[in-house]
Design a protein that fits this description.
Elements lengths: L7 E5 L4 H15 L4 E7 L9 H15 L3 E7 L8 H14 L3 E3 L8 H18 L24
Parallel strand pairs: 1-2, 1-4, 2-3
Helix pairs in contact: 3-4
Length: about 150
Amino acid sequence: MTSQQVELLAIAAHRDDVELTCGGTLAKAVRTGHRVGIIDLTQGETGTRGDATTRAAEAERATRALGVHVRLNAGLRDAHLQNDEPSRATLIELIRTTRPRVVILPFPVGRHPDHRIASELGRDAWGGGGGGGGGAPRTGRSKSSTPSPTAKIR
């Protein structure tokens, strides 16, 4: 396993989203011996809870506290997430870098547009060549994509 490779990967729009939604799951997976990673899609630069520098420092502390092995940032624009070809290509490359068996995505329904789009973007990148669909990246949406097999982490 490479230093960037993980078994469980959580993808979210902003720094702190993963900690708030599935931090306990990640910590438990780490405690039971799994390699865990996080991909933040943005730096949270337009958020109301601190600037990008503050949020980066908080994310680093949270990464250590949870025991997460790899944390990457896609560098997409906060408050302007799009499920378009360039964004999918960026995320596909990060997913391929981490090579997860299981991906946790945001709930697809909610009031924050970045959270909804992060869910769709993650789903399409994972199934479009990042992992679930395998093969070369397919950055276009496909209704015929076969979902990846479900893996169980205890």
